[in-house]
Write a structure and sequence with these properties.
The complex is a heterodimer. By secondary structure, chain A is an alpha/beta fold. Chain A has 13 helices and ten strands. By secondary structure, chain B is an alpha/beta fold. Chain B has a six-stranded mixed β-sheet, with helices on both faces. In chain B, strands 2-1-4-5 form a four-stranded antiparallel β-sheet, with helices on one face. Classes of the chains: A alpha/beta, B alpha/beta.
Chain lengths: 310, 286
């Protein structure tokens, strides 16, 4: 790495140290449904700085999507935040109601979901859907909308953007659709973008292009929270990561450090379960049931210490 | 090597020679006439021995799922030959076809849509036996057969009472595999059975398939876009691109020394779980 790159990273770190775009402190969320209380986040701490890509890694059911939902104000109605704080771009948004969240979504925080086909309206043209975002959040009108649409699609490296704007989602390939969704999420230059498994449904070669794109856009100063179960994606794209299981962050650190020396047994287990074509005879080791039981027992013990009767 | 005249030469389990398949291209269909045909698979060759494992790799649109359907005759191929133990599958009569399909079973990518949401797991798993009247007389409801099948894929027999939506993704895929095993087939065709699963659930499915091969001599056609999984499971690899075989051969050989530029591009695009700052910007060396 050249000196220049190091200096830039240091500079970004210096800015980030002042104000992370997303800061989650000691977040406790539980689901209350038909008289039952189920804790789903147990004291989550996490911070995403401007210009950095932070990964939230874990298996399904571990709480990673719940963190993403909490950070966008999209928790289900049955979810209750019992303790802790979420700060978005300096504002405490912990107990905001839906009308207030609407002023933030798109402008301060936006989201890219796993399946672009469900994120897009199937019966409207791409251009019309992108125009909605620009009219609603940026107040653009007339020719300015069309021009901005084209600029956004060019930015996400869509070939022939004029044509794509006239098409419907089903006429595009998966990779193209995901680019459109990313362009829409980026439209208002939000401070934070939350990507929830954005490349899981894509082919490997297309995945690499989309990862490159996210990297490039983050380089322009936005913070990215990358929710994924793919440690390969984390290693190649992200600056830092948090490993989550049972709604608890088990390990956090920079990507070089954690991949060189994973501290928590669960992180090591996830790595051992990740297939590697470059190691002949490498046998996949599923995460040990005993380890999961131990983690679950720890989570229950934590609940008892917090006075939650599950 | 030549065999003496009159000797019984054991034929391979599956032989595919010059297989080709076309489907109507609905996007180009004129309003009043039939749609033009579009080639989905062209000149596919391979041989699968009993107990052997073939990995089929391809990206979306490569024709890999169509190949799975062609092999099970759900979409009969128009060209080439498909031989099962040396006999031409395309000439099988109805009875032979039933027998063939009991021997070569398909496991689907998305168990949520492949399993009937309104039936309990035990009924789903024992259905193939019920349909062919092969349930034991003292096991009319198939509960015992289901328990044995579930146990074989590492699921507790109690799960038999649940519905598919009450299971995790990994468990559902095991149910799909258990159902495919009900008729004691010689080969499984697994079409993207691990995509959509977590790494750990994925590792469990791979371990299960490996075990079935080792203990039961089950042959496997493992269709996937994940080269790393194919590497850990298969002896033979076939790489498909736009319906054409780009590279085919011994897995260890191809992974160590890919001959085709496309294979190299696929390998280079896989993010390995280790820190490598230059990877994103690096172009495939072609």
């Amino acid at each position: 790495m050249t000196d220049g790159t190091v200096a830039t990273v240091d500079a970004i770190d210096a800015i980030a140290a002042v104000a992370p775009v997303l800061q989650i402190d000691d977040l406790h969320v539980e689901i209350r449904q038909s008289g039952r209380v189920t804790p789903i986040l147990r004291g989550v701490n996490l911070s995403v700085s401007a210009g950095r890509i932070h990964a939230l890694v874990g298996e399904s059911g571990g709480g990673k999507s719940m963190v993403a939902k909490a950070a966008t104000g999209l928790l289900p109605e049955s979810a209750v935040t019992t303790r802790g704080r979420i700060t978005l771009d300096g504002q405490d948004v912990t107990r905001w109601d839906e009308p207030r969240w609407r002023t933030l979504r798109g402008r301060t925080v936006s989201m890219v979901l796993q399946d672009p086909l469900t994120a897009l309206n199937p019966v409207r043209r791409i251009g019309a859907q992108m125009a909605d975002v620009l009219r609603l959040h940026q107040g653009l009108r007339g020719g300015a909308v069309e021009a901005e649409n084209l600029r956004l699609l060019e930015q996400v490296q869509v070939r022939d953007p004029t044509q794509v704007l006239r098409q419907y989602p089903h006429q595009l390939s998966g990779g193209m659709r995901q680019r459109v969704v990313i362009a829409m999420a980026w439209a208002c230059r939000p401070r934070l973008i939350i990507c929830d498994e954005p490349t899981t449904a894509l082919d490997v070669t297309v995945q690499k292009q989309v990862l490159r794109l996210i990297h490039k856009l983050a380089g322009e100063g936005q913070g990215v929270l990358m929710v994924t179960h793919d440690l390969g994606v984390v290693a190649k794209l992200c600056h830092s990561l948090s490993v989550i299981h049972g709604g608890r962050i088990l390990e956090s650190g920079s990507v070089p450090e954690v991949f060189a020396q994973p501290q928590h047994a669960y992180t090591r287990a996830l790595l051992a379960a990740t297939p590697r074509f470059d190691r002949p005879g490498h046998t996949l080791v599923p995460v040990d049931d005993g380890l999961i039981e131990q983690l679950d027992a720890e989570a229950r013990a934590y609940d008892r210490s917090q006075g939650v009767l599950a | 090597m030549t065999h003496p005249i009159g000797a019984i030469v054991p034929a391979p389990l599956l032989q595919v020679r010059g297989l080709g398949l076309s489907l109507p291209d609905m996007a180009k269909k004129p309003f009043f006439s039939a749609a033009p045909m579009k080639r989905i698979l062209r000149d596919v060759h391979f041989t699968l021995e009993a107990g052997g494992t073939l990995g089929v790799i391809g990206e979306s649109g490569s024709g890999k799922s169509t190949l799975a359907r062609a092999l099970t005759m759900l979409m009969p191929p128009q060209d080439g030959a498909l031989l099962f133990q040396g006999r031409d599958v395309r000439r099988f009569d109805a009875a032979d076809m039933v027998a063939y399909r009991t021997q070569v079973q398909l496991v689907f990518q998305d168990p949520m849509s492949a399993l009937n949401p309104r039936r309990r797991v035990r009924d789903i798993v024992s259905q193939p036996l019920r349909a062919l009247g092969r349930l034991a007389r003292e096991d009319r409801d198939g509960a015992r057969a289901a328990a044995q099948l579930l146990e074989r894929v590492g699921l507790a027999a109690q799960l038999g009472g649940r519905y598919p939506h009450e299971l995790s993704g990994g468990q559902r895929q095991r149910v799909g595999i258990a159902r495919a095993l009900a008729l004691q087939p010689l080969a499984l065709i697994a079409d993207e059975v691990t995509s959509g699963l977590d790494v750990s659930a994925q590792a469990r499915i791979v371990a299960l398939l490996e075990e079935l091969r080792r203990d039961n001599g089950l042959a496997l056609v493992f269709i996937s876009h994940d080269l790393s999984l194919v590497r850990s499971l298969c002896d033979q690899v076939l790489i498909l691109r736009q319906g054409v075989v780009v590279e085919h051969g011994d897995a260890a050989d191809i992974f160590a020394n890919p001959r085709h530029a496309y294979t190299r591009e696929l390998l280079d695009a896989i993010p390995l779980p280790e820190h490598d700052p230059g990877w994103l910007e690096r172009e495939s060396v072609v």
